[in-house]
Amino acid sequence: MPLPPKAIKSLADLKTLQHKLAEQRERETAAAAARAAAEKKRLAEQDLFARAIGATQPLRRKAAVPLAPEPPAPIPVQHQLDEERVLRESLSDEFDVTTLLDADDAMSFRRPGIHTDVTRKLRAGEWSIQRQIDLHGMRSDEAREALGAFIRDAYKQGLRCVRVVHGKGLGSPGRQPVLKAKVQRWLIQKSETLAFVQAKPAEGGAGALLVLLAPARR
User: Fold this and answer.
1) Distance (Å, rounded) from C-alpha 38 to C-alpha 36?
2) In what order do the strands lie in the sheet with 193-198?
3) Among candidates 102, 136, 96, which has minimal Cα distance to 119?
4) Is the separation of the CB atoms in 195 and 109 below 8 Å?
5) Are 91 and 144 in contact (CB under 8 A)?
6) What residues contact residue 24 under an 8 Å CB cut-off, 6+ apart?
7) Phi, psi of 39 (to 5 degrees)
8) Distance CA 28, CA 180 (A)
9) What are 166-190's pLDDT values in tens digits?
10) Rounded CA separation 168/28 (Å)
11) pLDDT digits (tens, 9 = 90+) for 39-70
């Protein structure tokens, strides 16, 4: 820091001031030289980069990456097919089965092409019962829907022999098994049904049917 003019009282003070001024000029010169060297280096690197990439042109528009639209939701084809099938398989209470039932005590049924040995073995218990449904006490429309769903599910799972309990009609007006005749009609209308017979006394007797289902398609 130079001495103020009024502080200079001797030759020694003058020399001290000169020495400090010289040091300050050296520092300023060194700083200026450093700045110049840094700027020279920056320009050289910029020039090197420009020569490396060659001539350039500004972009005329913003770069954009086209995005694919979201795919549509998958169509539940199998669900639609199942619903259409249910509509096609609407079970009728007016379906006449009298000419399709075998004229035996149990009024059994076997689809055309099915040998009588099938119903004989079914009646003899040679087919193991794999599942059952109890329709006893249901209203007619409830029983129809429940039976249709039960047969469809059993068929899809590859079951072959099931039991359908419809009751003996002891609580119905006139003590007539109204639901039994309807269950026979409904089962015959189901394409999955190959045959059915009245259950043995130990398995429900006149209040139940043993139903043989077709093999599931793979």
Assistant:
1) 5
2) 109-110, 193-198, 208-213, 161-165, 131-134
3) 102
4) yes
5) yes
6) 2
7) -65, -40
8) 116
9) 988 665 555 566 798 899 999 999 9
10) 118
11) 888 887 877 766 777 666 666 666 566 666 67
Residue that is written with structure tokens 């004989």 in the block: 120
Which residues are CB-contacts of 160 (< 8 A; sequence separation ≥ 6)?
127, 130, 212, 213, 215
Would you mind telling me the total number of residues written for the chain in this entry? 218
Supply the pTM of this predicted model: 0.55
